[in-house]
Design a protein that fits this description.
The protein is mainly β and 68 residues long. The protein has strands spanning 2-4, 11-18, 24-32, 37-39, 48-56, 59-67. The strands form 2 sheets. A 4-stranded antiparallel sheet has the order 3-2-5-6, with no helix packed on it. Strands 1-4 form a two-stranded antiparallel sheet. It comes from Flavobacterium phragmitis.
Length: 68
């Protein structure tokens, strides 16, 4: 899975995925440069709906992710 950070921020991104019942199933930290694509290996996750939260410094973005 690729995620593009449409941001002018550089720094360390904290990326967390939560299952539909709220359990944290994936967490990582990646160094990012503005507008960079980050690749995440989510091959070991089961099919389903997840919530992804990405935080860089004091800004965060949360979105729904569906793995087929």
């Amino acid at each position: 899975m690729n995620i593009k950070f449409p941001s002018t921020e550089n720094g360390t991104a904290s990326i967390n995925l939560f299952s539909s019942n709220g359990s944290k199933v994936y967490t990582t930290k990646k160094s990012v440069i503005s507008d960079e694509k980050i690749e995440l290996n989510l091959g070991n996750l089961a099919k389903g709906t997840y919530v992804c939260k990405i935080q860089i410094e004091d800004r965060s973005k949360t979105f729904k992710l569906v793995k087929n």
